[in-house]
Design a protein that fits this description.
Layout (H helix, E strand, L loop, with lengths): L9 H5 L1 H10 L11 H8 L11 H4 L13 H16 L23 H4 L2 H8 L5 E5 L5 H14 L7 E5 L2 H15 L8 E4 H11 L1 H4 L6 E2 L2 H14 L12 H13 L4 H8 L7 H17 L2 E2 L1 H14 L1 H10 L2 E4 L7 H11 L5 E5 L14 H4 L1 H4 L4 E5 L7 H12 L20 E5 L2 H17 L7 E5 L6 H9 L4 E3 L9 H14 L4 H8 L7 H13 L15 H14 L6 H17 L5 H15 L5 H10 L22 E5 L8 E6 L16 H15 L2 E10 L2 E3 L2 E3 L4 H4 L7 E2 L6
Parallel strand pairs: 1-7, 1-8, 2-3, 2-6, 4-5, 6-7, 9-14, 9-17, 10-12, 10-13, 11-12, 13-14
Antiparallel strand pairs: 15-16
Length: about 750
Amino acid sequence: MNNNGKNGNEEVNDDIDDMLSAFLKKFTKKAPEKDDETTVGKMGGFNLGGNYYDRSDLERLNLKDYAKVRVDAETYNKLDRLQAIANSIETKVISKPEQLSLFPKRQYIVDYQNALNEAQYLAVTTVQGPVLVIAGAGSGKTRVIVYRASYLLENATPPESILILTFTRKAAQELVVRTKQLLKNHNAERLVSGTFHAFSTMLLRRYAALIGIPSNFTIIDPSDSADIVDLIRTELKLNVKNKAFPRKARIAEIISKSRNCNQSIAEIIEQYFMGAYEFIDNIQLIARAYREYKKLNNIFDYDDLMETLRDKLRDNEKFRRTIQQLYQYIMVDEFQDTNVVQKDLIDLIAAGSRNVMIVGDDSQSIYAFRGANFENILRFPETYPDCKVVKLEFNYRSNHRILAFVNEIARNARLGYKKELVSHNENDVLPMIAKFYDQQEEAEFIVSRILELRERNIPLNQIAVLYRSSYHGTFIQTELLKRGIPYIVVGGIKFVERSHIKDIISYLRIVANPLDAIAWNRILKMVPGIGQVTASKIIDMVHHNNNVIDFTGFEGKKFGKDLERLGEVLTTIRRESVSLPVKIELLSDYYRPLIKNREPDWEVRMQDIDVLYKMAHKYQDLEVFLTDFALDPPSTKFQDSVKPLLDETEDQPVTLSTIHSSKGLEWYCVFIPHLLDGLFPSAKCLHNLEAYEEERRLFYVACSRAEEELYLTMPAYYSAWDNYFTKPSRFIAEVNKNKYQVYKPDKD
C-alpha cells in the first residue's frame, strides 16, 4: 500500500481507527491571435502564412504520419478474446421468426409484419429465451421495444410481468405512452418501465421488511455526497495545509467510480486520478467513513440503490425468487451503457425465466467515465450461450453518403460487432471537411453556414454544433451572439442544483428522515449565529431525543428565538394532515426573510420556489416527491446565458452540445468543430488503446446524429499550455478520401 498520503498527517494516521470510531458515533488557456509568418512558423514548425487557406494537407492525409497508440500485451490479448466472442455472434444471427408457434394464432390489433422491417419483426416476435438486438444508429430500436411490449400484451401477458429498464425517465415514459397509443387501450399503463435507479428504489422500499432495511431512507445526490465527504475530511482533520488535498467533489467522484467500475480506490486513482496518488491512504479512510456514515444516518446515494438491490437479490433467496417470478419478460435499452452492477442486476432477475432481450449498439458505448462497461454487450453471448441475435442495420435517419462515412469509422474500430448501416435516402451530399486559419475563422464559417441553411428554410432547431469538450464551443457562442442568432447550450446549472431549491428540499428531507444529518447541517447553518460546532450539538441532541424536535435547551442563546421559530415550522410540516403543497407554502413563508437578508436577487429565487410549489401539486406522497426529485430532477428552463433571438415569433434556437449529451438525438445538419489530433481524439487517450477506441466511438456518435448535412471543421492550430496541435484528427485520416469532400473557398 502507498504510504505517501501519510506525509504531514502522522498524528492523524497513528490513531486512525479511534478517530473514525469517534466520528461515526456522532451519527483553457486562450489560443494565440493571428500572428505574422515568422512567429507562427516557429510555434508550429511549419508556415501557416498570413491568410492560411492551404488545405492540401487534408488531401494528403496518411495514417502512417501519426504515432501509434500504445498497447501492452495484456490489453492486446484481452481485446483479442473479446473480438473472438463478438465474431461468434454471426452463427447466432436468426433469419426467421422462431417463437411464433409458442403463441396461438389470433387476430392482432397491430399488423406487426407490415408495420416493421424484417429484422425489427424478428426482434419483436422472438420473445422466449435470451435475445441480443444489435441496433445501429437510427435503426428504430425504440420502435422495437414498443412493438415487442405490445406483442406480449396482445398475447395475454400480464403487463406487471413485463419489465423495461432504461437510462432516462423520459425514455421510460415514452415507451409506455407509445405502447398505449399503439394498442389503443390502458394495459400499457401497468407495464413496469423505469430507470435502473427508480426501479431499484421501488423494490427496496416495497420489500424493505423482507430484506431488512428501513423503508424511509433518504436518497442523496452527488453534491450531497461531496458535502458528506467534506464533513468527514474536516472531522478527521485531513485538511492538509501544505499540499493541495483533492477537493470534496473529486474525492466523491473517486469513491463512486471505484464502486461503478468494481475496482479499488487505489486502482481508480492510479488509472484516472494520478494527481491524488499521494493521498490514497486518506481517501481510502474517507471512503470507509463515508460508507459507515450513510448507514448510521439511513442515507442512500445513487450507487447504494443498485448495489443494495444487487446484494439482496444475490444473498436473499426468498427475495430473489419473488422478483424472478414477478418479472417474466425483461427488456433493457442502451445495454452498452450498463455498468458491472447493472449487468449483475439483470442477470439475477433474468435467471428465473431467462426471457431477457437487451438492445444496444457497441459502437455507441461512450460512457466509461461514469462506469459503463463496454464489455457487457460484447460478453452477452458468453453469459447466454444459447442467445439469439438480431441485427438492425437499416437506418431511418441519414443519407447514404453520411452512412458510408459513419460505416468507415466503425470499420476502423479495433473491437466490436460487424454491422453495415444502409438507407433508402439517396440524397447525394458528401460530408464536408474544412480547415481555417484559427478558431475565430472556423467560428465565422460555421455561423455563416447556419445563416445559409436558415435562408434555405432549414429551421434553426434542426441544426446542431457538437463538440468533444465544452470549451471547443466558446468562439462559436461568441459569433452566434454577435450575429444575433438564438442558441441553447445543453447542460448548465440544473434547477435542483440551485442553492435555494436545495435549501427547501433539505427541510422536506428532515420531515421524511430525521436522521438526515446533511440536511440538518444545511438548514441549521442558515439560522443566524449557528456555525458548524453548534449545528453538530443540536443534531446530536435531536438524535438522542429519538428525533423529537425540541430546542428548549438553547433558549438563552442569541439564536434561541430563531431556532424556536425553525422548530415550530418543522413540527407543523411534519404533520401527516398537512399536504405537500402546504408544507412548501409554509416553508416559503419561513424562508423568505432568511434569503432576503442573504441574496440580492432573492425575489428571482423565490420565483423558483413558487415553481417547486406548483410541481408539488402533482404529488400526494412526500417520499415519492423526494425520490423523483433525487433520481430524475427537473432541468431548468431558465438558462443563465444570453440567448438572443432574431425574431422570437419565428426562430427556435440552434443547439450547442457536447457529444455525450447529444446521444439519441438527431438534426438535419451537424457541425463538429476543433477536429485536431490531440483535441479529438484527446491527447490523454493516445496512451491507452481502450480509451482511444472510446474516442472513436464518440466520433461515430457525433457523425451519426446528422440526417442530411455533416461538416467537420478545424482551425490550423490550437495552443493549450505546453501543447500545440496542428494535425487534423487521425479519425479523418482513417477514412477513405472518396467518402468526403474538402471545402475550398471561392477565393484563396
